[in-house]
Specification:
single chain, 112 residues, mainly alpha, 3 helices, flat
Amino acid sequence: MNDTPVVNITRNPAQAVASVVKLFGFRVRGNTVYVFFAGLVAGVFLAIAAYGIHILLAGAAMIVPPILSVLFIRHFIANKPRGFFRFWLDEKCQGRFLRKPKRKGAIYVTAS
């Protein structure tokens, strides 16, 4: 008897994010780490700017931006689909209802 070998066809893997990291106990995409580092850098720059005014103000200025970046990550990035912040921003600016399409001219044709 002729035994034909079974051909395995590999399928494309599901579209997944290449890198996922844990940040403060949340699984987030790898690029999210840059949001947190931006908060750290902003805190250092604000502390340098506020140091001339008062040392306590500089200490508060160093702590606030990283905390805000963590809150941003928890609210808009962790366990949310990609592009959620853009969707939320559009919803807040335009409303939750669909907008009517913009038409040129004054004559509207409707099907009746």
